[in-house]
Input
Amino acid sequence: MKNFVAVLVIVAVVLGFSSVFVVKEGQRAIVVQFGKVLRDADTGEATVYAPGLHFKLPFIEDVKRLDARFKTLDGNPDRFVTSEKKDLIVDTYVKWRISDFATYYLSTNGGNQAQAEALLTRRVSSGLRAEFGSRTIKEIVSGERDNLMREALIRGADSAQELGIEVIDVRVMQINLPTEVSQSIFQRMRAERQAVAMEHRSEGREQAEFIRADVDARVTVMLADAERESRQLRGQGDAEAAGIYASAYNKDSEFFSFIRSLQAYEKSFEAGNDVLVLEPDSDFFKYLNKATAN
Output
């Protein structure tokens, strides 16, 4: 009897725990019975349980908890083609949440978020592709980005309804050209800058040649003027010196001759070992002969 009572207590406890479930804050729950979502008998809509304590039929009904918070889908940058058939690498993100929990559960293989995001990515990308394909690069980067995101949001929201998802926002974070196109543009820009640099260098060399030629001409003229003035000054100095010598010679020619002879003697015997072969009575020894005679 005691064993039977114990078994009954255990069964009651198990049934009690199996009949109660808790939904946490930020979650919503739906109940699945025999593989079907439990729905309201009057409205036919799925019964969604808010955060709190709830009851269900034990072992028959299964509770599926789903995240009801806002989520961000930030995938890898994707390639889009503009109306000019130009490729762009676009980085986007999507804000979304579950709007129809039963539809979401059934369309995503039991509420698999990874599958839901993969399906949502395809739908949003399809809308973005249509919007990028109807615009040029200039329109996209100049003033059409807000309009593009707004239209992409509308397209994404419409297509995501069948997944039970509400698309809150679609944002284009960054738009880049493909690597090969960017390199081609950079090379073309570099070639253009190099051509401009070469043109500036050529103009600079030409101006340098003009300046150098002008300076050389001025230097040549200045040197010629200086040489001319120096020759004139040298001539004037020589003339003045000759005049002074002539005046001095005229005042005392004998003394002048004597001085010149002494200078000649000094120059001739400056080395100390010079040999002169001259007649003793030559004019060179005139003053020496006079000194000897005296």
The chain has a mean pLDDT of 80.
